[in-house]
Design a protein that fits this description.
Number of helices of chain B: 0
Number of strands of chain A: 11
Largest interface: A-B, 29 and 30 residues
Strand content of chain B: over 45%
Structural class of chain A: mainly beta
Radius of gyration of chain B: 14 Å
Number of strands of chain B: 11
Oligomer: heterodimer
Helix content of chain A: under 10%
Order of helices and strands of chain B: EEEEEEEEEEE
Largest sheet of chain B: 6 strands, mixed
Number of helices of chain A: 0
Distance between the termini of chain A: 36 Å
Radius of gyration of chain A: 13 Å
Helix content of chain B: under 10%
Shape of chain A: globular
Shape of chain B: globular
Structural class of chain B: mainly beta
Chain lengths: 114, 116
Amino acid sequence: NAGVTQTPKFQVLKTGQSMTLQCAQDMNHEYMSWYRQDPGMGLRLIHYSVGAGITDQGEVPNGYNVSRSTTEDFPLRLLSAAPSQTSVYFCASSFWGADTGELFFGEGSRLTVL
Amino acid sequence: GENVEQHPSTLSVQEGDSAVIKCTYSDSASNYFPWYKQELGKRPQLIIDIRSNVGEKKDQRIAVTLNKTAKHFSLHITETQPEDSAVYFCAASIKVTDFGNEKLTFGTGTRLTIIP
């Protein structure tokens, strides 16, 4: 199993550009989520999904869209990039929500917005 | 929403000594408390977790304690080794729907350095 795979690993955008961070998992996890990690602020939840067709907002959802058309994929879309969205983004998945055990993280995607 | 505070932000200990990291949470409905370790440039990985019906859990050199009344929980690492150097995150989760605990709130992290 590859686990949780994120692409791209690095991306530089200009303000106002849009892009999609891809996330795929091959563990048949119902739960998938996106976090951003900023220095001194820990990991903050952006959006999450508990199954195909079901998504909900986390702590910092503004400026981001998600969709979940399949169990395996959970892309994160930046609609109009802003410098405040410069961060490291992690996708994570687990069985039936975080209470059931381990969150499996991808390797992260480092995004810089100029 | 849930708020998790973590202290200290940095911690240096001599190799072989113990390290303790403390977290407090705000929502008394939180019932799941994991700890993640993140080595430099790597992804976070679960090292231990505890549920609200348990007061303490151990796994070799690592232990977590939970005080529900005071709403705080702690990570204890004994006999520290150089490979324990990393950033450690606590987290708290509240059950939102019947599916499970979907919203995991993380602390701001503790950078632990083991001095040889």
